[in-house]
Amino acid sequence: MASGGLLTPLVRALEPQAAVLEGLVADEHNIDKAKRGGLSKDEILGNIFAINFAGHDTVLITLTFALTLLAADSDVQEWLHEEIMAVLRTCSQNGKNWDYDMFSKLNRCHAVFLETLRLFAPITGVPKIAAKRATSLQVKDRVVSIPPGIEVFPVLLGIQTDSQYWGPEPYEWRPSRWIVHPGTVVDEELLVPRGGTFFPWSDGPQNCVGKKFSMVEGVAVLARLFHGHRLCLERDNGETEAQASKRARTCAHDVNYNLLLRMNHPERVRLELRNRSVT
Question: Collapsing DSSP states into helix, strand and coil, what is residue 151?
């Protein structure tokens, strides 16, 4: 098994128990020590499930919303394509090779992914429990004391759609709000939100360990897809392009929360992938 992955330490945690079963641990003291230091097979399988569920389903759901909204907005697709081509020409000698160094330069792809998470975070709340001592929070001009053991449930959509931090029309899906110094690709920078106003991966020392992984995966999918393709909506009979776009946006906003955020009727929107001429 390759080293350095998340699953490697979980599998290695079984090694002390394996040593016990094989009679390699001689005395009772070392047997107890080995048992305390390892994980059971059920615990390992549970962790593997959690890693796969948290690391893949959440990205998949975010991309489902992002692609639906992109299919309804051809201007944002062209905006993405412009950046992808510019970055690829800058970072690749022949304009075709993809490299991890491109990741940090794809600000518009980041913007689409982050804006989708702002409005359609797969996990809509981040439960926290106060520590063994009281915790104080500054809320505007008041100090709120949270007693030990009290559970607090910050709701992401509440803070991530507050016009005080996100400007007018905070419920509008507009990826360009994440771009500082908009204009030419080389001059653009990605917005760093004010602390505590954007936390789809939670926040603080116990935030999601898969944050960087999900960002790389999401941005890579968007960059590769819109480099050589357009995403279009299949129209119903007699439907105009504007009507199809409105139907897709309505579908994206018609959601339920069943463990994770999901569209109620994704089957009502059909997407078509078309090749574009890339030079």
Answer: strand
Nearest CA to 231 out of 98, 66, 59 is that of 66
CA–CA gap between residue 130 and residue 146 (Å, rounded): 7
- pTM for the model: 0.79
Residue 91 has pLDDT above 90, yes or no: no
* DSSP single-letter state for residue 72: T
Phi, psi for 256 (deg, rounded to 5): -140, 165
How confident is the model over 223-279, as pLDDT tens digits?
999 999 999 999 999 999 999 999 999 999 999 998 889 999 999 999 999 998 755
- Cα–Cα dist 133/146, whole Å: 9
How many other C-beta atoms lie within 10 A of the C-beta of residue 133?
Answer: 7
Write the CB contacts of 276 (distance below 8 Å, at least 6 apart in sequence): 81, 228, 229, 230
109: nearest Cα among 252, 223, 249? 223
3-state secondary structure of 271: strand
Integer-rounded Cα radius of gyration of the chain: 23
**Selection from 74, 60, 119 nearest residue 266 by Cα:** 60
9 membership: H or E segment, kind and range: helix 7-12
Q: What does the block give as tokens for 258?
A: 């069943």
Picking from 274, 275, 229, 251, the residue whose alpha carbon sits closest to that of residue 64 is 251
User: For residue 48, which of 99, 22, 9, 100 has the smallest C-alpha distance?
Assistant: 9
Residues 166-215: tens digit of each pLDDT: 998 999 999 999 999 888 888 899 999 998 899 999 887 777 777 888 89
With 0-12 CB in 10 A as exposed, 13-18 as middle and 19+ as buried, what is 66?
Answer: buried
